[in-house]
């Protein structure tokens, strides 16, 4: 299995869930921009599950030498790369903040996804799991830069799923709502609408095994976002969401 964004609590919870369920991986490739943190997780799954892994440094903000990844073969790719950025008005007009949000969540991430998608296509098997966001379902004033990047990523995963279907490769789009993670620490999240990483992992694993196309981590979010998507624009533009 390939894990992009392996410092993510959701990614790590998914790896553990898969191993607990008896999934067998010759090796798990843990791509990370924080090698020290990821090495601790690698040691953890080695001790707990006797699972061999390899930690690979990957910084999306730097030039990537794809030749270094030629030897990697896998049947599952789990992408949990994400960057929320600064959502305040000051952050909105900070171009460095805006560029980082767009780069990490979409423009620098897609070429990496494509590289491994091509490997899956050539082998004509496998599953690609991408964590997008409900923020991409409709632009809202509170986080529309982040939401726009996730909307692009959702569209990319949809197109990739359509393209790879005939090549026997499945693509699952996951849309978490509020998540209790380091990325959202300090935000005023409604506990009834917030999932833990373990809850998310269980939902994603179930969707993975059922070969679902799109999965909301908490079912309530599919209803919430259906309502938000269908609010007429002349009303929606006046709301503070």
CATH superfamily: NAD(P)-binding Rossmann-like Domain
User: What distance separates the N and C termini?
Assistant: 37 Å
Name the poorly predicted regions.
Answer: none
**What is the CATH third-level topology name?**
Rossmann fold
Q: Please describe the biggest sheet, giving its number of strands, its sense, and whether it closes into a barrel.
A: 7 strands, parallel
CATH C-level: Alpha Beta
Helix and strand sequence: EHEHEEHHHEHEEEHEHH
Strand order of the largest sheet: 3-2-1-4-5-6-9
How much helix, percentage-wise, in residues? 40-55%
Q: Which structural class matches the secondary elements?
A: alpha/beta
Shape: globular
Number of helices: 9
Q: What is the count of distinct domains? A: 1
């Amino acid at each position: 299995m390939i894990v992009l964004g392996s410092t993510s609590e959701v990614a790590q919870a998914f790896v553990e869930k898969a191993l607990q369920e008896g999934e067998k991986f010759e090796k798990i490739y843990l791509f990370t921009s924080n090698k020290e943190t990821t090495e601790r997780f690698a040691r953890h799954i080695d001790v707990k599950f006797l699972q061999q892994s390899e930690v690979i440094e990957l910084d999306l903000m730097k030039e990537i030498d794809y030749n270094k990844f030629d030897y990697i073969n896998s049947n599952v790719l789990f992408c949990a790369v994400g960057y929320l950025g600064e959502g305040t008005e000051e952050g909105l007009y900070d171009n460095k903040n805006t560029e980082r949000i767009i780069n990490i969540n979409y423009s620098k991430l897609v070429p990496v996804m494509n590289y491994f998608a091509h490997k899956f296509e050539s082998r004509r098997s496998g599953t690609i799991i991408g964590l997008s966001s409900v923020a991409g379902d409709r632009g809202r004033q509170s986080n529309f830069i982040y939401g726009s990047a996730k909307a692009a990523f959702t569209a990319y995963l949809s197109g990739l799923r359509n393209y790879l279907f005939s090549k026997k490769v499945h693509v699952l789009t996951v849309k978490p709502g509020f998540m209790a993670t380091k990325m959202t620490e300090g935000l005023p999240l409604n506990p009834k609408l917030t999932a833990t990483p373990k809850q998310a992992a269980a939902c994603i694993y179930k969707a993975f095994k059922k070969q679902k196309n799109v999965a909301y981590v908490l079912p309530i979010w599919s209803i919430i976002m259906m309502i938000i998507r269908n609010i007429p624009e002349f009303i929606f533009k006046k709301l503070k969401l």
